[in-house]
Amino acid sequence: MPQSLENHVPAKDDQDDLVFLEEHPAAPATHAPREVWRVMIIDDDEDVHSTTTFALGNLDMQHRPLEFVHAYSAGQAREMLRHEEEIAVILLDVVMEQDDAGLHLVRYIRETLKLADVRIILRTGQPGYAPEIDAIRDYDINDYKTKSELTRIKLFTTVTAAIRSYEQIRKINDSRRGLDRIVHASTELMSLHGVQNFAAGVLTQIAHLLGQETNGVLCVQECPENGCQELVVMAAAGQYVNHNNTQLTCSTEPRIASAMEHTLEERRNHYEDDAVTLYFAGKASRAFVAFLHTNRALTEIEQRLLEVFCSNVAVGLDNVELVSHLHNAAFYDALSKLPNRTRLVEILDATISGPGKDDATLSLVDLDHFAETNDALGHQFGDELLVAVAERLQSRLGQHLTVARIGGDIFCVLGDATQVNPTTILGLFQVPFSIEGQDVQLSATLGLVRLAEHEGTGADALKDADIALKRAKSMQRAGHFYYSRSMGVEIRERVRMMHALRSAFSQNQLFVVYQPQIDLVTRRPVGAEALLRWQTADGKFVSPDKFIPIAEYSGLIIDMGEWVMRTACRELVALRAAGHDNFTMSINVSQVQFRHPYFLEMLRRALADTGAPPEFVELEITESMAMEEPDMLIKMLAQIKQTGVSIAIDDFGTGFSSLSYLQRLQIDRLKIDRAFVTEITGSARGSSIAEMVIQLGRNLGLAVIAEGVEDERQAQILQSLGCPLAQGFLFARPMTADALNGWLSNDALEGVA
């Protein structure tokens, strides 16, 4: 016979927290005792079976050895359990054929097979699948552990506890009614949400079990490494109802405090003639203890029932508190304790679907220049400032409003329109905030939505408020703006186009066309401008004026621009191979693309990979882009020029160029905007601006090209003014690469002849 560990006393950290009934000589049982305890292992991992039997196979529990029954899937276990008898403990894996196969098997065992006595220990190697409060409530499991925490001693302790529980339940037929009450009480408790409700339910259920009035307190004691803290009342009833959320001390309640300290020290229940003090073992350096007055001494069976009940409740208290912490983390801001974005959306949904919608207004409150304050005075100071803002919004706006924090420095106020209005909210920021003895003056910008005018979900309302906030910011800070439907249509159309553009780019619906550039004297082509086009799946074209700003806004222009650059360079190489040697390829560069930190690297790589000669590649930048950050541009253009690529300023004359900066820019060509070309024959001012640009280019030694030339008279006037080059519908419309090659080889030469 192997050595028995029945009298083994594990170290304190290895002790199982469950408390079971003392073993008493039992009356003859209905079921004859077996020679072994039968333990069923249900797991799809063979190693789990072997390690479990290796750890427990040579040990005695309750003076009997163990006999193991093995199932390697939930389906196999279903079949075996129909015939197997006297299974005392089931060690059940959560994840087998499906993620929740173990949980479904629990329901099958309890409800279909009606096996109420067997103890089920849920084990998981994946903590994410450990049962939460719903699973504990809905499935009759007795314990759950992660496989990583089940050392040999802890596995022995857990299985021993389960076998003892099984044995006791089988023996105590005379306490069946009490056990039924425990099951009912546990079910009732598991249906309660929140730590406070659960704790109050524990007091109520204990009183029901004993047939007593509810009169007592339940406390929690934290015991970190630096020593145990005071007892904190989690629930109170009867004469102690006013003690909720207070500290319980010997000075306030000497009898209760003394009884609880004694119970915590001995880690067991204590019974008096008129009171009971119950111990609930908690995890993570935490313990729970309850004190209830009784009008009589408890019977032995009542004491036994309480022992079993306390072991069940201990697990429930730990888990409901864990769920409560997870709930707070998911729905409340850790710093301000206000509802976060997720919780606010829930509140908004309820408001929109309720009777208060017509009178409600939602306002985003964005603190102006908070980042600068945070950087200058430190993050701790910034956190204290955010807390101060949260407290002022809550205390000054009234209890009937919802105040939330949905971002770093963005708060939200929801409530009646009479209170949620710009005057009231912005007025709160007129008085400085005092932080660490320092006065800090803040201002805010608001984006507001009247829910009566809103159609959609709470998340939609929050998006609309954000749209209004962005509009308020664009119209100067320290102001406000109310959302209107026209704003929403504009923004949603932009978002729709952004997604469509991203999809079109990935599905090769974008393509490059080329518009020839002509020598006005010889009427021969000297180059072409590469232009990006978008044709949708139904054959419709989307104007570049619409989709280029969207590409810039979304950042997609970076990848699109590089693709256009490479495509145009490859076409240039192909044209040169076809014999068109003296031909320049002009490529437009977006401001967003130009500012990208790796733009130079993109350009160099495109030239190297395609083999395009840089002296025949020209980059076009806009005049407004050239003038916005001239110092940065001067440095950038110098680096670009080192690659051999030339630079042109597009749409010249439409901006507000500084001639002093223009002289410093290393550019090669000016491009006359089509608006001034049109004026040559269609305006009283005639050719004055076009003539001025041509003369400026001549004086600065820059080439000049006119775009948008649509009739012969415009071409003749430009030629007479000294403009050497032009492009426009008069000469050729933008065309595909294949069409350009054919046009250069045939149509263009015929046109010149």
TrEMBL record:
Residues 358-485 form the GGDEF domain. One of its GO terms (molecular function) is cyclic-guanylate-specific phosphodiesterase activity. Residues 38-162 form the Response regulatory domain. The modification 4-aspartylphosphate is found at D93. PROSITE patterns: EAL, GGDEF, RESPONSE_REGULATORY. CDD domains: EAL, GGDEF. Residues 494-748 form the EAL domain. GO terms for biological process: phosphorelay signal transduction system. Keywords: Phosphoprotein. This is EAL domain-containing protein. It comes from the Bacteria. Pfam families: DUF3369, EAL, GGDEF.
